[in-house]
């Protein structure tokens, strides 16, 4: 599905606005595809481009290198609105791999975890501290379950255990099940070998 997520070290991009909904992440008019590739070009499109398609120079999203800012530090109630799976697809294709916020919409969280994108909820003090140091790289260590930055104390976070394992392995739920196929086949073979039909 995606490359395994174990640790990620990156600068953060702060979008502090509250209630950034999925239509802002990727406008509905671009939901004409069922493939994930290429949606990064439309991520935050109305924030990044004028009506004629020219880039907005004032947009911070046009002034960063996405390869250096792979962690989005978002305002509260991030990704509210519709349940479109295109939202995490667009964020991943743009270059983000994780979002940190004080509140993330439940449906987006579910979609994100199924697609290799890590949502992390922290308290306001941690968010404020991260926002105050935008150029200092942040390390997200999924195996340890903590966020680290410079000499600051590590911040623990939790992810639902099955989703965490899928992220660490770089698979989705179906990929995880397919990896268990040899065990399933062995079980079925042993079960059939031990089956003794009743006779009258």
From TrEMBL:
GO terms for molecular function: 3-isopropylmalate dehydratase activity. It comes from Brevundimonas naejangsanensis. This is 3-isopropylmalate dehydratase. Residues 4-124 form the Aconitase A/isopropylmalate dehydratase small subunit swivel domain. Catalyzes the isomerization between 2-isopropylmalate and 3-isopropylmalate, via the formation of 2-isopropylmaleate. It comes from the Bacteria. Heterodimer of LeuC and LeuD. Pathway: Amino-acid biosynthesis; L-leucine biosynthesis; L-leucine from 3-methyl-2-oxobutanoate: step 2/4. It is an enzyme of class 4 (lyase). One of its GO terms (biological process) is L-leucine biosynthetic process. Keywords: Amino-acid biosynthesis, Branched-chain amino acid biosynthesis, Leucine biosynthesis, Lyase. One of its GO terms (cellular component) is 3-isopropylmalate dehydratase complex. Its EC number is 4.2.1.33. The lineage of its organism: Bacteria, Pseudomonadati, Pseudomonadota, Alphaproteobacteria, Caulobacterales. It catalyses: (2R,3S)-3-isopropylmalate = (2S)-2-isopropylmalate.
